[in-house]
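Deviations from the work plan: none for this task. Representative record:
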Amino acid sequence: MSETTHHEMWERLNLDLEAHDGLLEVLGKFYGDIYLSQDNRLKGMEYLDFVLSEVHGLRIKELQEAKEAGRKVIGTFCVFVPEEITLAADAIHVGLCAGAEAGSDLAEQLVPRNTCALIKSFIGFKMAKLCPYIESTDMIVGETTCDGKKKAYEAFNEIAPTYVMEVPQTKTESARALWRSEVVRYIKALEDLTGVTITAEKLAEGIRITNAKRKALQRLTALRAASPAPISGRDSLLINQISFYDDPVRFTAKINELCDELQERIGQGKGVAPADTPRLLLSGCPMAVPNWKLPFVVESSGAVIVGEESCIGTRNSRDLVDESANTLEGMIDAIADRYMKIDCACFTPNNERLENVTALAKSLKADGVIHYSLLFCQPYSHESLKVDKALQNAGIPMLSIETDYSMEDVAQLKTRVEAFVETLG
Ligand code: BJ8
């Protein structure tokens, strides 16, 4: 992570420079051990390495320059906030979920101890003055998904004003009507903030850009069905993580280039691990940057990860917005419909997720699934039992793991993952 050149900018953003330097140092080391140590990486990963090395540097500089030119920055915590609309308002959409423990002890002043690590992390990053993204936002958007997040936004609002979208908890007709009205309310909120009127033309362009990004990620997912696995799970997770920060047009072009390289590699029969390496699908809670713990444990236990069924994975890229509408109302309907397909564990019932996980495991030729829940995450812990049953019925073995962001259980996790991988033969 480059530090010296960006200090002035970080100071202007009121970061705690000493603590922030410490964070970047740890992250740089962590990244070197987990990422740069891998063999057979794709050339296209150099771009991702560069973006990650500048995630608090050049990308923040770009955001500051955009702000000086009059654009607004919108920070989000959930894939329910429609990026299409943010782009249509000529604003920039960034993900604020955090995957590190730093600041989590401070977060316990605002949320209870038994809150998941993801929530504690974004609150902790704000309280410890560690996140230049939060400090760059003009509007932070929360959402009513799990109870932990709903209540956390009330507390977070005290230190960072948060606009909250109401996400329904069921998939009924009335729930869809509520969600559509929330999409309309978000359009209005953005128009008020930016002074930009969201026209059909602008929204069509926002839909096109976001769909193109999702199509590139879908392409990556499909290519990972090849054997031997052509890309590591760690690198694929990084691509999905960076999709929440990078400029969407640039990112899409780079990921399509990387997919071209992948295609070539597959054509040559090359991969990152021998063809008989057990293939695993990860399923469950999102893994925000820099939460690379479990992928590292899995891929250093004799297995390769071939997919991520999570919001920082296929749940965010699987469905596109229908582009056939040409009126604003029609596009709003198409956006509402696309987002209602998200199979987050916060919905009840949520049977489509069981079908989706099983279908994904089959299409990626996974030998097994690791279900990952963050400690204290009720929705995903509950669903791990149902996912297990559905996979058993399909003859696919599953290992359930609950953990947080600390490194204390790494040895224990490795023992469990190795034992599971051994059973896969
Ligand atoms: S659409 S998965 S991004 S809510 S891990 S905070 S669920 S207690 S992240 Fe999510 Fe949107 Fe759903 Fe996706 Fe709560 Fe669980 Fe914590 Fe979680």
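Strands lie at 73-76, 92-95, 139-143, 162-165, 279-284, 304-309, 368-374, 398-403.
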